User: Fold this.
Amino acid sequence: YSFCTLLGSRKQTAMINSLFIMSTGGCIVIEKHWKGMLPRHVADDYYSDFVLPHENPKDVVPIVTSGKFIFAHVLHCDLIFLAVLQGESPSMMIIEILQRIVDIFDKYFEDVNEDTIRDNFVTAYSILEEVLDNGFPMSIETSVLKELVPPPSISRLLHNLRPGDAPVNPTSFGVESQSTPWRKHGIRYSNNEIFFDMTEEIHSIVDADGRIISASVQGILDCNCRLTGMPDVVIQLRNPELLENAAFHACVRKSRYAQDSSICFIPPDGQFTLATYDVGGDQQFQPPFYVKPQIGFGDGSGRVSIMAGMRGSFVPTDKKDGQVQDLKLTVPLPSSVDSCTIDQSHGSAMFDYSTRELVWEIGRLSNSKSSSTPTLTATLHIRSDAERPSVTPPVLIEYNQTGGSFSGLKVETVNILNEGYKPYKGVRTFTKAGHFVVRS
Assistant:
């Protein structure tokens, strides 16, 4: 969803009536109402009906309906950010707005919890007043918000001004242009630089023979901009045709992207998310490493054998590519498994009795031909009164990779226009596992 599209369709879309920030214990920390004041018992009823029945607040469904109300929430640091609506709205848009509020609080208060919000109540309430206008998103850029609502440290400085001190002119904090509300005029840096981080999360299912059953990639392109003036940034991507469901920041010129797949924009100051995207469909993804499990059960015992290593066909494009790090394999075993004897050649392995999981932390995989192949064998001991397990468990994979793009998408060039300086430009690429499963 695009915030610009939403703001252009206010008459057709109902948005947030009220927002309650409450602890996981049910105590309301702060509340803000935009369309009439809802009584607190609405939030209390939500808590008793939908949160209390669950032992873990993470198990609560993000969006539920009760009577004439629609409730949407996100959970962050033992706080529930609860939005209450009284009409149909794009559900993912509401979740996105709540997540934006959480991100803004993170940047203002660093450690977001019940105490920090109470200690900075005025600042937190002012943020909510500026972020939403009549329940619709308005000022969602942190760099702009900090001009309207000074962070707590600046607020205390202004509050502590002694009588007779020079008054602070509010316009000295900057006023953004109507054409670029996400960036103010007069920004200056002694060192101009702009950095991009492309992070891709893999969701894949692989069968026992190593064939890809399904695979998709969710990516995010973050930017950290420290540029003087009003620069025009142009990004060219390698393989832009791979992008699906691309959602861009409001600063991106959509017409230019539709024309030649160039991402052109006047960036906000500081850190922001430039784009999110999916890559999937007919693409044949192949991870740079393999995992070959063999798991079987007999009467009273079982055996697990796993081998992992880099693919011989994987050719790194530079020295940083192919550095698979923090590789962790988890095998969820049946509840009838009572103990486990493990022997592994690399890393560390353990059997977690409370969760019945065999966890093997390999760490880094090398693509060097001289390095040995990591292997693990484990003998499972099954309770004598239990039946022989009929289902073979899969292997769940977690890993990180620096410098490698799983999808083949890459930032090719970054050009800065309309300014005379030559900034330092940097691009980093990361890959990590999302829901990555290898069947045995």
